[in-house]
Amino acid sequence: MQYIEIAREKLNKLRDRDDFLILAFESSCDETACSVVKGRKVLASMISSQIEIHKRFGGVVPEIASRNHTLAIDSLLTETLDAAGVTLKDIDVVAVTYGAGLLGALLVGLCYAKALAYALDLPLIAVNHIKGHIASNYITHPDLNPPYIALIVSGGHTNIYEVQGFADKDMISLGQTRDDAIGESFDKVARILGLGYPGGPKVEKLAKQGNKEAFKFTRPFRNEDHLDFSFSGIKTAIANLVSNSKARGDEINAADLAASFQNSVVSYVVDNTIRAAKDKNLKTIVLAGGVAANSALREELTQAAQKEGMTVKLPEFEYCTDNAAMIGVAAYEEIKAGIEPSDLDLDADPSL
Ligand code: KG4
Ligand code: ZN
């Protein structure tokens, strides 16, 4: 029998079970991650972060990221299996992020997962990174189920979805960024303010000491009837404020600037998300992605939703930024939703 036929047969036998083990990989950006999950339960989730390596370049260098994934992935697998208390023989499914992300980085996880799936005759499930972020909430809230509104905020995405189920056709895009992602704008503002990489947590920390009303920024698409975003204007406005004050020889208050920036982008995504939930008459909002670690966003979204009689589901901090547990749980949900296993010619899709 061909590999894909074996994979299909094995996967079909798992569909109505929830006690099988998924081994998941994530390598779309600068974290190499590996996890073992059983349903929505995480048995082990290990991350080898490259932050220290990329720090001195002020951002992720794609080629260096790929090389370091290659160096890390093998021993990370051993550590993850050990932490989960299982061996490769116990694994039923291999899952991997195949997009979106950096092409070279994605390929490391993808080739590794394919080789394992082929060698062990296991079904391979290709996971969309965004769906992984959404699934991070199923780890924290095992009783959560669609329908709900999902706000995904990361270094590569700013999206609002109406989620009616876990299959692609059941995730309806209601709004997205037309230029920078919100996390990217945090990273760029951090660079302008000389805070370094990764920018999000550094801007958040500095913002705590500033006055969020000190600077006002114009909100894009103010009176337009859609839920799309733009974040490139605010970054340019901040770059101009900083360079103009330097030219005048003034010292700009960086904490006030960080606080005002954060306040502006947080209220922007919160307002659009509440609008989406009202439009679709949905009472549950799910937050996901690296920027979901931002306390101001978590608090403001929760308060705004409460005012409207809605509930907000937040992922635990450890599952906000990239990890493989969310990829494993997304694969579990995909299997339940009827996904077919991938064949070995599966390719990475950087702009998925
Ligand atoms: O989901 P993630 O780990 O990777 C992508 O899929 O992009 O998100 C990383 C992004 C970065 O832009 C980072 O600056 C941002 O999430 N981030 C934050 C915070 N923690 C991470 N942004 C704002 N506040 C934070 N506390
Ligand atoms: Zn991510």
Explain this structure.
The protein has 352 residues and is α/β, with parallel strands linked by helices. Helices cover 45% and strands 17% of the residues. The strands form 2 sheets. Strands 3-2-1-4-5 form a 5-stranded mixed β-sheet, sandwiched between helices. A 5-stranded mixed β-sheet has the order 8-7-6-9-10, sandwiched between helices. Helix 6 packs across helix 7 (199-207), helix 6 packs parallel to helix 8 and helix 6 runs antiparallel to helix 9 (254-279). 48% of the residues are buried. The structure holds 5'-O-[(R)-(carboxyoxy)(hydroxy)phosphoryl]adenosine and zinc ion. Zinc ion binds at residues 129, 133, 154, 289-290, 322.
CATH class bucket of the largest domain = Alpha Beta
| Shape verdict | globular
Cα distance spanning the termini: 31 Å
Q: pLDDT average, as an integer?
A: 96
Low-confidence stretches: none
Backbone CA Rg: 21 Å
Number of helices: 11
CATH architecture of the largest domain: 2-Layer Sandwich
Structural class: alpha/beta
Find the CATH topology of the largest domain: Nucleotidyltransferase, domain 5
**Small molecules bound:** 5'-O-[(R)-(carboxyoxy)(hydroxy)phosphoryl]adenosine, zinc ion
CATH superfamily membership of the largest domain, which one? ATPase, nucleotide binding domain
Reading the helices and strands in chain order gives HEEEHHEHEHEEEHHHHEHEH
Query: Level of helix content?
Result: 40-55%
The main pleated sheet reads as:
5 strands, mixed
Q: What spatial order of strands do you see in the largest sheet?
A: 3-2-1-4-5
How many β-strand runs? 10
Number of domains: 2
- Report the β-strand fraction as a percent range: 15-25%
